Amino acid sequence: MSVARSSTICATRSARPPASRNSARSKILDGFLTETDELLRLERECRAEGFCFVAGVDEVGRGPLAGPVVAAAVVFPRGAALPPVNDSKQLTELERETLRDAIYAVPGIQIGIGEIDVETIDRMNILNATHLAMQRAVEQLKQADFILVDGRPVKGLPLPSRAIVKGDAKSASIAAASIVAKVYRDRLMVKLDAEYPGYGFASHKGYGTAMHLEALKRLGVTPVHRRSFRPVREIIDPPPEQPTLF
């Protein structure tokens, strides 16, 4: 069973954030990073080797049953005061949103985003789609000559690169990329929640939670679900029941 896109999208009313929220945002931005900070050590090492524009690259959305996979690439200008970034998985939603805005506000920063849709994910598999998202993110940068990428080596990157396991906790550039990618994708999933009501995309962001799996069984598969992923595939084509012995 497939579900068509809803023709009704709820409009949201913009409102000024309460004073308490502004105060919380200010606390999040306490203690900006400087050039000598440990979280910039990998970037300093790359520059010592002659690379001038070091990009941090990370992705979000490999595991969900629905929605795109997104990657971001970030190049911080040398010597700039940087927001106190961290691995996006260790941050609250407010912290991510606040730091995302602070990242974009850094003078001279370069940011690229690569987004790969579900049709491409299903066609080429999630690993290759993730690598393609990273390639596209890097290609959007105006100036980069080296890449620090989170996790394992990535094939097809257009520049020399170094893979850093748990890099989002070791490199400011990778951490910033993880925040940018996470906020970008989360906002997309909130929009999809309005287009496909009842699935809870705004809360679980497409991951295979109990709520999401129950909605899939009840409402069926939408065009933004990954049909190559087994839980979705089994809704479309249920496996045969195993015969009982007794």
UniProtKB/TrEMBL annotation:
GO cellular component: cytoplasm; ribonuclease H2 complex
Region (Disordered): 1-22
Protein's GO biological process: DNA replication, removal of RNA primer; mismatch repair
Swiss-Prot/TrEMBL cofactor(s): Mn(2+); Mg(2+)
Stored Pfam families: RNase_HII
Keywords: Cytoplasm, Endonuclease, Hydrolase, Manganese, Metal-binding, Nuclease
Cellular location(s): Cytoplasm
Cofactor comment: Manganese or magnesium. Binds 1 divalent metal ion per monomer in the absence of substrate. May bind a second metal ion after substrate binding.
Coiled-coil ranges (or none): none
Main location as per UniProt: cytoplasm
Domain RNase H type-2: start-end pairs: 52-241
Known EC number: 3.1.26.4
Compositionally biased intervals (Polar residues): 1-11
PROSITE patterns: RNASE_H_2 (PS51975)
Binding positions for a divalent metal cation per the UniProt entry: 58-59, 150
Highest taxon listed in the record's lineage: Bacteria
Keyword tRNA processing: no
Gene Ontology molecular function: any one: RNA-DNA hybrid ribonuclease activity
Reaction equations catalysed: Endonucleolytic cleavage to 5'-phosphomonoester
Family statement: Belongs to the RNase HII family.
Main function: Endonuclease that specifically degrades the RNA of RNA-DNA hybrids.
Name used for this protein in its record: Ribonuclease HII
Organism (species): Victivallis lenta
